[in-house]
Amino acid sequence: MLARSCAIALLLMGAAVLVSAEDTKADPTPDQIQDIIKKFTQKETEFATARESYTYRQTSKIVETDPPGGSYELVEEVGFDDRNKRTSHVLHAPVQDLQNIVMTGEDEQDMRNVMPFVMTNDTLDQYDVHYVGRQKVDEITCYVFSVKPKVLTKDRKRYFDGQIWVDDQDLQIVKTYGRGLGYLKKSEDQQFPKFETYREQIDGKYWFPTYTYADDTLNFKDGPSQRIKVVIKYDHYKKWEFKTESTIQYGTEVGAGGAPQAQQQPGNSTAPPQKPPR
Fold first, then answer.
1. What is the pLDDT of residue 245?
2. 272 to each of 11, 151, 240, how far by Cα in Å?
3. 109 phi and psi, to 5 degrees?
4. Alpha helices per DSSP H over the chain
5. Model pTM above 0.70
6. Cβ distance 200 to 210 under 8 Å?
7. What are phi and psi of 176, to 5 degrees?
8. What domains can be seen in the chain, in order of their start residue?
9. Which terminus of the chain has fewer CB atoms gathered within 10 Å of its CB, N or C?
């Protein structure tokens, strides 16, 4: 992100308040750890699929704080069109007036995909995952894992590098802390700050990202450092009722004398999917 290319920065907000002392339960064995990783990635895979059927609003704001400068703000509605195709509609986008840094494509990727990090069965092999210990987030007892990408691919794909907190009951991620990481040429002076993302249980089953925060200093190799503050909110989650079209053709009825009668075609019908139990 940013001037000379710097990425959105984020430092943990109130971690000391939200993360309590380590739990007194015994740590799982190595075999149990592997089983936990397998189970929570399966749960995260199910969540990732479920989230794709929700509409929501994402509000992103970046402010240059030290030295004081400008800001960036974007409010977008993520939803579906009449053909059930995923869309993003900008609701509010004032003129961007960042003065000391410049948003890059890597920053946009981080805001969309890395900050609301999800680890699925398809992405697990891309990371080294190691058990760190037990901690509490609020009153939720969690397993803590370090997560680091194995390889930074030259297609400039972005990865998460940091720690995740997994609810030891629901086996879903409830908090992430780290930064976006990806392949960059040596000539590129991009700095990617640390961020912290919290999730909340939205529908009684899945934990959805609701808040990302950062307050970090970007130290550029070829220029002065810049402290920025980032706040991203994800809200207004709503289950989308997918529209389906079907034509029901009833069997031909035979009237008097064996002559076929006109077939009845009731036309289109909309059948919303079942909502998950609460």
1. 59
2. 41, 42, 8
3. -60, -45
4. 15-18, 30-51, 105-109
5. yes
6. yes
7. -130, 150
8. 15-239 (2.50.20)
9. C
